[in-house]
Each structure stands twice: as structure tokens, then as C-alpha cells.
Description:
- This protein is mostly beta strands.
- It has one domain (about 1-100).
- It has strands at about 1-5, 10-15, 20-25, 30-35, 40-45, 45-50, 60-70, 70-80, 85-90, 90-100.
- The strands form three sheets. The protein has a four-stranded antiparallel β-sheet with strand order 2-1-5-6, with no helix packed on it. A four-stranded antiparallel β-sheet has the order 3-10-7-4, with no helix packed on it. A two-stranded antiparallel ribbon has the order 8-9.
- One of its GO terms (molecular function) is structural constituent of ribosome.
Amino acid sequence: MYAVIKTGGKQYRVAAGEKIKVEQIAADVGQEITIDQVLAVGNGTELVLGSPLVAGASVKATVVAQGKHDKVRIFKMRRRKHYQKRQGHRQTYTELEISAVTA
């Protein structure tokens, strides 16, 4: 059984036992969280779509880690104008392990 969930402004297709990295969630490592924004639930042949959410569906997940992605380097330059700007950014994430998908 799998589900399509929405968290952090993005959508993810998840199934029990998978690990995913999502936008940072305020939760401690080892804490179990429930994601209620389920857009679709399916199991092979049948698919239940929500409008916009599936009623009564939820996904249980455990927080495995909190961290930062690799640095994204930003470099801006204007030729012949003696202008250069360097910048960097490391986006934070929360790694989740999906334990159960309930419809």
C-alpha cells in the first residue's frame, strides 16, 4: 500500500519501510509523527483520490535524523562591470522512516 502525501509544500509518494527527506519539521529524533495531508491512497490495482484530501487516511512516520543538505553555491557576475557576488545556502531537512499507511 502506498500514499501520496503533502508536506513542506511538496508531494511525496511513500510506502511502509521507506526513508524520505522532507522540509524541516519541528520534531525530536525518535519521535513518531502523523501526517494527515494524504492526497491519494493506492494498493496496486485500486487508487483512492481525495478532493483535495482522502478522508480518514493518515501516514505514521518516525523521525530518523535532522540535518542539512550539501551547500548550493550561487555565483552572480556581470561581465566588463567588475561585479561578482558569491553566496551559499544549505537547506535543512528532516529524514523520516515511514512505518504505516492507513486508509
